[in-house]
Amino acid sequence: MAGFNVITEGHGVRRPARGRVHYDTIVERWTILADKHILADDYVMLKVRERLSLPDDCATGLDLHYRCPRCLYGEDQGDEDED
């Protein structure tokens, strides 16, 4: 999915967005699992659903595999390239 991080342009994200989409065949429902900051951004979530042709009523959830550096390591981490 090269170039997918274009959806985060202008939203302060410098690294590619991370997450995954899961389909539960028993309840027949899509779930987007991602970092809490991605899930909180309505614009980004809209673009994710559009790009992946997902329905508007997708479930969302956090996954410990998908956390930004600040959530993983603290507020001062990952800021070396910022002024």
Can you describe what's shown?
Strand 1 (19-24) and strand 2 form a beta hairpin. The model is unreliable at 1-8 and 77-83 (pLDDT under 50). This protein has a domain at 17-73. 10% of the residues are buried. The chain is of the alpha+beta class. The chain is globular. It contains 3 helices and 3 strands, in the order E-E-H-H-E-H. It has a 3-stranded mixed β-sheet. The protein has helices at residues 36-40, 42-51, 69-73, and strands spanning 19-24, 29-34, 59-62. Helices cover 24% and strands 19% of the residues.
Features:
83 residues, 3 helices, 24% helix
> How would a textbook summarize the main sheet?
3 strands, mixed
Roughly how much helix do the residues carry, as a percent range? 10-25%
Distance between the termini: 29 Å
Given the helix and strand composition, which structural class is it? alpha+beta
SSE order in H/E notation? EEHHEH
How many beta-strand runs? 3
Strand arrangement in the largest pleated sheet: 1-2-3
Number of helices: 3
Radius of gyration: 14 Å
Mean pLDDT: 76
Low-confidence stretches: 1-8, 77-83
Given the C-alpha coordinates, what overall shape results? globular
| Percent strand | 15-25%
In a few lines, what is going on in this structure?
With 83 residues, the chain is α+β, with helices and mostly antiparallel strands. It contains 3 helices and 3 strands. A hairpin with a 4-residue loop joins strand 1 (19-24) and strand 2.
Write the layout of secondary structure elements.
Blueprint: E1 19-24, E2 29-34, H1 36-40, H2 42-51, E3 59-62, H3 69-73
Parallel strand pairs: 2-3
Antiparallel strand pairs: 1-2
